[in-house]
Design brief:
This protein has 815 residues and is mainly beta. It has 5 helices and 45 strands.
């Protein structure tokens, strides 16, 4: 190897010496900022004569450049850099002066304050960016004052039921990131978390259906990356407040950015209200014959309160390095109180039980996260569009997630009387430590007149998750005596998960619009669990080699794409927690610490076209298959009590088609729409049960810009319902209108939004069946809402600065 390197070095030295003897001319100099007199690093320097471009280079970290091996003659230097005006400089090389030193050439900045910028074109509401679909939420005025659930309801390829549960193309095992970083809040209970995140903080939503090797393998269905609004360079901020019957929030953002230092602060508080009614009828079966009938009526009206804050600090020691630190915290409480009337009868209609259950359930939660990272960029080779980059990132997050409930049972047969009381506490925690290193190396290969760009990516990552749950139950069996501990329903549970991963990927961009992303990721997982009270242990370890390949070809205005990838879904705390939620004594729910991960295979064929008139059409056909899919399985005992718990028990296959259209009908009117249709087939040989059918969702939105700075927008979404292993739900729809008025020289805005104004709420039926039961649940959610939001923006913004790198336990956007 040393001999080969020596030969290569000798050949390069000989070639350079011969070139210098034939072309002795040299041009050298440096570039500086005309205002600050600081160097301009990594700027492009091209040299040309009257006929053609001859050579080029980039300035180093000190702004210096050197162009050797030039023939004698007259030349023009073209100097350019992002954020600066291009400049031409004439240079002459003669026999008397073959080396020309042009000195420090100043470049003028093109940065402008916000008030000086004129926006000539609006970003589309929905954009296709090769490996991901982007929904620009900040362009949708109907989101103002809402929640993240309102935003995701409009995103193509996603569907939400009325409880806020999310699916991507029929699969609910989704990895959700915030600014490319994992969020313990999103992992705890996604539906609740989305209701608690204000829509006003969301800039865009990225949907990644076929992640490559650089992305973590976690997230069987794919990745959703929620990008929050960030301030630009300079000093600026904003204050927003909204009032409504279902959502209320207030938030503020402050940011200061200098050439080397950037500081930002944000804080918000919010409230959301959920009003629901439900009726359930269930038949308990034994050998196909009814044993008893249960009828339940429930009503709930709950308001959750919480807040969020973040602090970030970026420091650039020089133009090629960045150190970044950030800390954020969520916190709040979500009550889920309800009143449930229960009537249990035998097949002849004789009453067996008749009682009311008053449930008081609270969920005080929190999440704190700290990121510290270092990024180093290197000199960019001539002709390469991206830089060499090394990043070292660390992250620590901690999420206490607690549940407390008190349930009081009152008999209703003759005289109302308290007959049973139970109090349960569940203190759960999830600590996560992450260390990650990534390196990106771009290079060129020239073959004749063609140039192919390559990008080699490699990295290592280690994650440790410490999960715990401590649960206690106290109860009074007659409702009158004091509460006493029940050791049979109490335990302490520790669960440790360690992941070590490495990946290598190559990205190829050929000149004739061929693109290839090829990679492999290896992940090894080790699990140790322990029920401390009962001294029961569990252990598991497994390794996964995850391949991924995406090939695309541009043909005129069209792009064709094909991809294959594997994904795994490790069960999160919400699935693993063995705590038994018995707040409703007829419907028990628990987790399963013995779950294995899902392994998902996905194939996708896509086509996209953008016409000269601005119409964008994106179409994809896909196939997904999971052999050990995690499904919540319900069983009902002979007393009519049901138990739901997740199990690796199903094979899930989906064949689907997704199409999205986005276009501008006129200069003031834009239209966007999408449809996703899929055939879902679920089967479980163990349960001797299956379910299948055609499902889908359709969404459309329209924006019209009116005179006097008014904008009107309308949107609608229709969902056919979902299919699970044991049941199906009926269709439902959602629609809304919004009117926005810009004022105070567009530094402030007032937005009025309404959802479902012509209906008090939305109804849905959910039918389930198994050998031990049949059930039908009719739910009604109050969805008619109105909200008024005011936002004021102050300070100045200008383009500039680089994005800080942070841990992304799916690495979305870390490219």
């Amino acid at each position: 190897m040393k001999f080969m390197l020596s030969v290569a070095a000798l050949a390069l030295w000989v070639g350079e010496a011969l070139a210098q003897s034939a072309n002795p001319g040299v041009i050298s100099g440096s570039l500086i900022d005309s205002a600050t007199r600081q160097p301009v690093p990594f700027a492009t320097v091209a040299v040309r004569n009257a006929d053609a471009l001859l050579a080029g280079t980039t300035t180093d970290s000190a702004g210096a450049f050197r162009l050797p091996s030039l023939a004698l003659g007259n030349y023009t230097l073209t100097l350019s850099s992002v954020g600066y005006r291009s400049r031409n400089q004439s240079v002459t090389l003669s026999a008397d002066q073959p080396a020309a030193v042009v000195g420090a050439i100043p470049l003028r900045s093109e940065s402008r304050t916000l008030g000086e910028v004129t926006v000539a074109a609006q970003k589309a509401l929905i954009e296709e960016k090769g490996d991901k679909l982007v929904y620009n939420a900040e362009k949708d005025v109907s989101n103002v004052g809402g929640s993240a659930a309102d935003v995701l309801r409009k995103v193509p390829s996603l569907s939400l039921d009325l409880d806020g549960n999310v699916q991507m193309r029929g699969n609910s095992n989704i990895r959700i990131l915030i600014n490319g970083k994992p969020s313990a809040m999103m992992a705890r209970n996604l539906a609740d978390a989305l209701r608690q995140m204000p829509a006003d903080n969301i800039k865009s939503v990225e949907v990644i259906t076929s992640p490559g090797a650089k992305y973590d393998a976690e997230g069987a269905a794919g990745v959703i990356n929620i990008i929050t609004k960030k301030a630009l360079q300079g000093f600026n901020g904003s204050v927003m407040a909204s009032l409504g019957n279902l959502n209320r929030s207030t938030n503020t953002k402050l940011s200061a950015k200098t050439r080397k230092l950037g500081v930002s602060l944000s804080a918000n508080g919010y409230q959301f209200r959920q009003v629901r009614e439900a009726q359930t009828t269930r038949t308990t079966l034994l050998d196909g014959q009814p044993l008893n009938y249960l009828a339940q009526r429930s009503a709930s009206d709950n308001t959750g309160t919480g807040g969020y804050g973040e602090f970030s600090l970026d420091y650039d020691p020089d133009s090629t390095s960045r150190i970044n630190f950030s800390a954020n915290a969520w916190g709040g409480s979500y009550p889920n109180n309800s009143t449930v009337i229960n009537r249990l009868t035998d097949p002849a209609g004789n009453p067996l039980q008749y009682f009311r259950n008053d449930i008081q359930l609270s969920n005080p939660y929190g999440n704190s996260q700290f990121d510290l990272g270092y990024t180093k960029t290197f000199r960019k080779p001539v002709g390469v569009t991206s830089e060499r980059e090394f990043t070292l990132l660390t992250q620590f997050s901690r999420m206490p997630d607690n549940y407390f409930y008190t349930t009081n049972r009152y008999t209703l047969d003759e005289v109302e009387q308290l007959s049973f009381r139970q109090h349960s506490t569940n203190y759960s925690r999830n600590k996560e430590y992450t260390l990650q290193a990534d390196y990106t190396h771009p290079f060129l290969i020239r073959t004749g007149r063609d140039t192919t760009q390559f990008k080699l990516e490699m990295g290592l990552k280690a994650i440790r998750r410490d999960i715990g749950s401590e649960y206690r139950v106290e109860q009074s069996l007659d409702g009158q005596s004091p509460l006493l501990p029940d050791p049979g329903q109490s335990n302490d549970f520790d669960y440790n998960q360690q992941i070590v991963a490495g990946y290598t990927a190559i990205r190829v961009e050929a000149r004739r619009k061929w693109n290839l992303n090829l990679g492999a990721r290896y992940e090894r997982t080790t699990i140790d669990g322990n029920f401390l009270t009962t001294q029961t242990t569990l252990a598991n370890q497994y390794a996964n080699l995850i391949p991924s390949v995406t090939l695309s070809k541009g043909i005129g205005l069209h792009t064709l794409k094909a991809s294959y990838t594997q994904r795994i879904q490790r069960p999160q705390l919400w699935y693993l927690n063995p705590w038994l939620n018995a707040s409703d004594p007829r419907n028990l729910q628990t987790g399963n610490p013995y779950l294995n991960p899902e392994l998902n295979h996905a194939i996708e064929l896509g086509h996209s076209v953008t016409t000269k008139g601005g119409l964008s059409v994106n179409t994809a056909f896909y196939w997904r298959m999971t052999n050990n899919a995690i499904e919540y399985v319900r069983t009902v005992d002979e007393a009519g009590v049901s138990l739901s718990r997740p199990q690796n028990i199903a094979r899930r296959v989906a064949y689907g088609m997704n199409m999205n259209l986005s276009g501008q009908a006129t200069k003031t009117w834009t239209l966007n729409g999408g449809i996703d249709l899929r055939y879902v087939d679920l089967s479980s040989p163990m349960l001797n049960q299956g379910n299948s059918g055609l499902v889908g969702n359709f969404n459309i939105s329209s924006t019209y810009k009116m005179p006097h700075n008014y904008t009107f927008q309308t949107n609608a979404n229709m969902n056919s319902g979902w299919i699970s292993l044991q049941g199906k739900s009926t269709p439902f729809y959602w629609y809304g209108f919004a009117l926005k008025r810009e004022m105070l020289d567009k530094k402030a805005s007032l937005t009025l939004g309404v959802n479902n104004p012509f209906n008090r709420g939305v109804s849905q039926h959910f039918r389930q069946s198994a050998p031990s039961f049949e059930s039908d649940t009719r739910s009604f959610f109050v969805s008619r809402s109105v909200r008024l939001a005011f936002e004021w923006r102050f300070g100045q913004m200008s383009a500039g600065g680089r994005e800080s790198r942070k841990i992304r336990n799916d690495d979305a956007g870390n490219r």
